[in-house]
Write a structure and sequence with these properties.
The chain is of the alpha+beta class and 455 residues long. Helices cover 30% and strands 29% of the residues. Bound molecules: glycyl-adenosine-5'-phosphate (GAP).
Length: 455
Amino acid sequence: MTEPGKVDMEKIVSLCRRRGFIFPSSEIYGGLSSCWDYGPLGVELKRNIKQAWWRAVVQERDDMVGMDASILMHPQTWAASGHLEGFADLLVECKNCHLRWRNDDLESNNCPSCGGELTEPRLFNLMFKTFMGPVEEEASVVYLRPETAQGMFVNFQNVVNTTRKRLPFGIAQIGKAFRNEITTGNFIFRSREFEQMEIEFFVKPETDKEWFDYWLEERLNWYVKLGIKKESLRLRQHAKGELAHYARECYDIDYLFPMGWSELEGIANRGDFDLVQHASFSGKSLDYFDNDTKEHFLPYIIEPSAGVDRSVLAFLCDAYDEEPDKDEIRVLLHLHPTLAPIKVAVLPLSRREKLVEVARQIDADLRQCWMVSYDDAQSIGRRYRRQDEIGTPFCVTVDFQSLEDNQVTIRERDSMNQIRVPIAELRRTLEAKLQGESLFPPPPGGQVWKEESPA
Ligand code: GAP
């Protein structure tokens, strides 16, 4: 198993490109800086991550509801949130080539690209601007949201009124966010268009500490339950000077990425900052009425805010492994079955009509439940390796004996163990295996053995 932090980013980028997880955006035009396109496998992995998050934080809980706000919001939102004023980096511009640089990244007083003279530092807002309606004038400026959070704050009263939720309760949202980042890089770690999975959890002010601690633990455990090694994760508290303008307290869940410990998710106690600001800028009361104490007050907000793309990268890095395999290397992704893009591959041993007929039938049947891949090209050993490399937990092999005994072989990715099961038991067996049931003992009528080295 590859040690935490020892995975080579180049290998991850190359695997993603080669197998269709992630491509540079608009590649045929030379790519667009810091924008990425998720290919057929990447989109499945990302969808599975989002689904697992939604299941854990919305579906399985009685104290959470979901929503999906629009990306474009009333411009006053960003005045109230502090983004218009405070969401900025100090930049200098080269008077010669006009490239902009973060002041704190510079090692000399000249442009790192052409050596030209630099301007005095100026604040540069990270929000993308666009225009609403047909006229491009200041009055019609709107912004692409730099976080999904504000959509939940401005809908707080709508949610309380329509769901009758009482404190403590949360709103969850998954969606795109945009930041005109100056320093990008490390593949999908920092891009200009990315996705967030955010929770805004509203609590009584005096209970903020206990809920903050609760969410720290809950969120850390979520990554571990989905297979990330504990030693690849750590909690890092923000120092006072580092806190965002809205935060009373904040911890990052850091992951040991190939470039070192970096933020995967931030968990902040935002106090009543956001509701105070939006109440003041909109002139609408955002008070909560407590039926028990008959008091009106503004709840505090605990915000676990995770990046979808950073999660994709962390799950990929953590799952990546190389094992000696005769003269070659077996590359595999130990992805948790819940996250694996393809759950089962159906592999007929040959392209003979009778075998294909059975294999196609199995393929069609399993597709009713999961993402399935049908592969009949090259030797069975090569096909197993292809599936290992994309993290497919199980392969089902249909051979000539299957025509006689109506049984097929299930081969497991990590152990390479194989069992033989009746076709009639296949769906039920895979269902149990995908939910984590041990591959042994086999189902009624089954046998177990170890995979032979590939041909
Ligand atoms: N609402 C709070 C908020 O947006 P943040 O720490 O700025 O907090 C939350 O962002 C998460 O969003 C980060 O932990 C990270 O996972 C992800 N994120 C932020 N900027 C990103 C970027 N440029 N590219 C990819 N992910 C990013």
